[in-house]
């Protein structure tokens, strides 16, 4: 039982750290020690392939309807993103982190077009770690909408 509670507390701490750990999010106060952060950022590449929507996927809205979806596939450490409302002027982005030494952060962003796009973090993402991530919509440099967080194991 203690292990379960400790695991949940660790996940909550990681989720709290995720908010301030990525670019475009609230920063730490001036009195905090500066942490060196590693951020792997990729523009998603369009693909003719697709992935099925399942429990390893997440969605984000635009206030009226679904704006996009994303899926994490541990085999190959790939993030799939899809803009489901390409005419709304918002881009879809996934941000997340793993619980590795140095807490590397990951960012996968797409364009304003529909269709599946893929980011490949196979060479950067540590094996057998927890990947905590969320999907968001952006207009320029401003975040508009955010999904709930997901936690999945890397390969």
TrEMBL record:
Residues 1-30 form the signal peptide. Keywords: Signal. It comes from the Bacteria. The keyword Signal applies. This is Secreted protein.
